[in-house]
Amino acid sequence: MxxxxxxxxxxxxxxxxxxxxxxxxxxxxxxxxxxxxxxxPPGIGKTAxxxxxxxxxxxxxxxxxxxxxxxxxxxxxxxIREKTYDGKKMSVTEYTMSEIIDSVYACIxxxxxxxxxxxxxxxxxASETLAxxxxxxxxNKTFGSHKVPDGWMIVAAGNPPxxxxxxxxxxxVTLDRVRKIDIEADCDIWMEYAWKHQVHGAILSxxxxxxxxxxxxxxxxxxxxFVTARGWEDLSEILKSYERLGIPVSDQLVIQFLxxxxxxxxxTAYYQLYTKYGQDYGICELLDGTLPxxxxxxxxxxxxxxxxxxxxxxxxLMLDALNDRFETVSELEKRLHMLHDxxxxxxxxxxxxxxxxxxxxxxxxxxxQRQVRQDSGMLTxxxxxxxQWMAGCLEAYEQRLKEAHIRSREEGFEKIRGWFTEEVxxxxxxxxxxxxxLDRAFSxxxxxxxxxxxxxxxxTELSKNEKIMAYVSSHGCEAYFRYxxxxxxRKREAELQKDCEELSTDPV
Length: 508
Fold this sequence. Notes:
Blueprint: H1 3-17, E1 36-39, H2 46-57, E2 60-65, H3 71-75, E3 78-85, E4 88-95, H4 99-111, E5 116-121, H5 131-140, E6 142-143, E7 146-147, E8 152-158, H6 172-175, E9 179-182, H7 187-196, H8 201-209, E10 216-220, E11 223-227, H9 229-245, H10 251-254, H11 261-281, H12 283-288, H13 293-305, H14 308-347, H15 357-375, H16 381-403, H17 409-449, H18 453-464, H19 466-475, H20 478-505
Parallel strand pairs: 1-8, 1-9, 2-5, 5-8
Antiparallel strand pairs: 3-4, 6-7, 10-11
Helix pairs in contact: 1-2, 8-14, 11-14, 13-17, 14-16, 14-17, 14-18, 15-16, 18-20
């Protein structure tokens, strides 16, 4: 199973476990709620999908890597209590609240989310003293005498023994009480995630050419060498930072993230070419339509004469630039939706007040709410930026009303409605501009490469991009539909040819 399929399975399981009847009771018997055990190579994205599932389903998430825990930190320190049995007082040993269970309750208090996921990573790498406790946890959903709260699904993750010599095999009794999901590295699936999360274009372009370098783990006499999905994503962030700061990227930097010398060397060389081709071809000018026709023709000829790697890199540069433009449109749309809903709420805020003075109170209330959510870890960085932008808009509206000497709430709202319309028009203009960039990209690639491999790559990667596909669905794109149909026809033709070849070789 790939990571996308695993994410879907976990999300569906969470929904099943949290289903309630008309009285508010869980429909799924708690004793039958098997923990999910994810087994797969390190750095494949197991932790990332847990964060996504929790966010998309609106539940809490407590994540622990168990390798640093001992038996004492997992189930708590013992204490002596006196209890009476059959009229006799006896000393018994009890354990304090587990650090891990305590973290679940702390998450509930902090976020207000009473349901969630308890994620235990590297569970089969627990210390020898802790191993029995981990088995009990999977089987009984308890740490010592402390039970995982109702409404919290358990997900554990581990690495197969070929990737970690310290792992312990689970016995049949334990495996019979969990839902084991084996995950394999899949470059194409990860690429869908990568487009959505703005992974650096050089990485996406490189992996389109060399998918075999996406994931590697080698154990040799000289040491351990590996390249993982986590490594590529973290490398993406440092590349963006270095570019903003004007710091050169060296192979010494790359190998810190891609810890396999051959792959690190190849990517570093490719990154240099990617950067150079971006400058040579003037991709931004091409897409924006500011490149003179003569220079545009020169770039097309340069692309035609380029080698395999250069042609695919130019295609990758086009995809990256388009992704940036449609990401801008997508963000503008999300901000406008948030601002629209907020203004709608303000219209009915403190209805007894007829003057715009209440807008200041409203703004402060929204700021306080944002701060609480931010302190509780309920906002992503992007969501926090979005809310800050909205607060800035509201403050600007308030200032403009004051400058216009408008005190009437009704008149003020009409003015704000007009200013909001200006924001909508700005978004529409950005959307139209992005659509024109898409048309120019198709035009350039068509003139340079026709319907060759480069166009196949271009259309295939566009189809993985949610933001661009949302635009195409709403506004259309003749070239995209035309080449999509062509690629589909070729695929069917190839499948038919394969079937015919198989029939011709079958014995009568």
